Each structure stands twice: as C-alpha cells, then as structure tokens.
Amino acid sequence: MKVVQFTIPVSRESTIVVQEEKLPHYYPHLHRHREVQIEWVVEGSGILVAGNYMQRFESGDIYIIGANQSHIFKNDESYFNPDEPRQIHSVSIFFDPNYLSQNILSLPEMANIRKFVHGVHNGFQIPEEAREAIQNIISEIIHHKESQRVAAFIKLLYQFSTTRDLKPLATSNSEQVISEVEGIRMDRIFQYLVTNYKRHISLAEISEIANLTPQAFCRYFKKHTDKTFVSFLNEVRINEACKIILSGKFDSFSDICYQTGFDHVTNFNRVFKKTTGMSPGEYQKGFRDI
C-alpha cells in the first residue's frame, strides 16, 4: 500500500524551486509543505481546498498557497477515467519565506515585498484582471536561470504586493498547526466525501471513517475546517453542480439536484443560492451573458 504523506518535502537546491508539469492529474491527497507555493493552473479543472476555503479551479487560475497551509487541487472525476485521457498543465514556484526574509528581503528597499510575504499565511487567489501580467512574469521565471531567474522572481513578488483585490483562501490560520496524523485523517475524510457525495452520507458513517464518535467528529471537523460537516458536504455538491451548469450538459435543474446528492429540489435551490448568492437559473444566465 502506498504511504500517503501529509508533509511533502520540496527540494532546496536553490532559492526558488520551479516545476512545470504535464500530468494526468494533480497529486490527489491533502498535503502541506513549509514553502509558500505559487500555482499557475495552465490547464486543468477541479476543486481546490486550502484551509477552510473551497472553490472550483479552472484553467488560467493563479493561487498563492501559504507555508504549511494544508491544500489539495482535486481534479474532476473525468481526469481519473482511463477511457477519457486528459492531463493537467501546471507551473509551481516554491520558496521558503523565512529563508527569503533573512536574505534578499532583508534589504531596506524590499520592505513592501517583505510585508506582503509575511502576510500570505492563508493564501490568495489572483483576480482575473491581474492574471495576464503575472503569467508573463512567471513565463520569464521559467525561461531564465540563476541570477536572472531570481530577479524575475523578485519582480513577481513586487507585482503581487501591488495587486489589488487579492482574494484570501482561508479566514483562519488555526489549522496550520495540524499534526501529521491529523492531516492524514483529514485527507481520509475529504477523500471519502468527494468520492461519495452523490449519495446520502450519514454522520455515523463519516464518523466511522474518521474513527471518532459522532459527537467527537463534529467537534474535530469544525475545529479543522471552521465548517460543519453538512455545510462542507453541501459545498462539494454545489461546486459539482456549478460545473454541470457551465458544461450545459443537463436537461433540467432537478436532474442536477439528484446527480449531486440532494434529496429535494427545494433544498438544492436553497443551498445553491446560499453558497453562490444566485439561484441556479441566475447562475446559468450570468455565464451566458459573459
């Protein structure tokens, strides 16, 4: 049996580590590393969970994952279907914020960039209007080597520090003290939910997966996600519903309701609006008008 690691080591051969990869899918387990991660999803789609943040990711998205922030880029089911070969294309940049602060960022001219780096604990999503400029700089980093790569990287950090409307990925950094054992347990819980969300999952069932009593599970899950089990499961379902609506491959909203694990259309509509701020029909119309 393959051992699932929660803390993933990153090579420390240089100040920054750049990885450009084309793979069948992202690493499918919740994990963390002590480095900050800048992630450009060149091609791919699925659900990103980072701390207590959950949202669909799509091609072109750029994220900053905080140091030691547990996260997973969980690709859509189609990426795991051998009959429908797909791939993701990603560019990942890793750096140790403490090492950087003690060296390059210790210069007085780097004060604003240093302040930004110290504030990325909970991660950020880059707004759409800022993506093109940042993608261009990341492309520079990929193609440069040694000192020119570091110079382009400082340029990237400066761009981040001056970008407005960065969207935080989490509302709390308390989960960052999570232990290795707890991280593996949370991954087991998450994997079970995203695999079985299309059917009813009882509290007793998921508690057994976590090897906890129902009461202890509720406290444990709330502590590590800042969400109830039901609200988290509903978010997984609504994210899948959004994907189906955007694909246009459905006959009615009631079909989507039952495909994503909801028992009643009324409940589906209520949860959809609470999660997205729109009804399913408004959500569909909004993307048609773009």
Shape: globular
Radius of gyration: 20 Å
What share of the residues lie within helices? 40-55%
- Whole-number average pLDDT? 90
User: What is the number of E strands?
Assistant: 9
Task: Find the structural class using helix and strand composition.
Answer: alpha+beta
Low-confidence stretches: none
Strand share of the residues? 15-25%
SSE string: EEEEEEEHHEHHEHHHHHHH
- The first-to-last residue Cα distance is 47 Å
* Spatial strand arrangement across the major sheet: 1-7-2-5-8-9
**Main sheet characteristics:** 6 strands, antiparallel
Number of helices: 11
Protein name: AraC family transcriptional regulator
Keywords: DNA-binding, Transcription, Transcription regulation
Pfam families: HTH_18
Organism: Dyadobacter endophyticus
State the main characteristics.
290 residues, alpha+beta, six-stranded antiparallel beta sheet, three-stranded antiparallel beta sheet, 9 strands, globular
Write the layout of secondary structure elements.
Elements: E1 16-23, E2 36-43, E3 46-50, E4 53-57, E5 62-65, E6 71-75, E7 88-95, H1 97-102, H2 111-118, E8 124-125, H3 131-143, H4 146-161, E9 167-168, H5 180-196, H6 203-209, H7 214-225, H8 229-247, H9 253-259, H10 265-276, H11 280-288
Antiparallel strand pairs: 1-7, 2-5, 2-7, 3-4, 3-6, 5-8, 8-9
Helix pairs in contact: 2-4, 3-4, 6-7
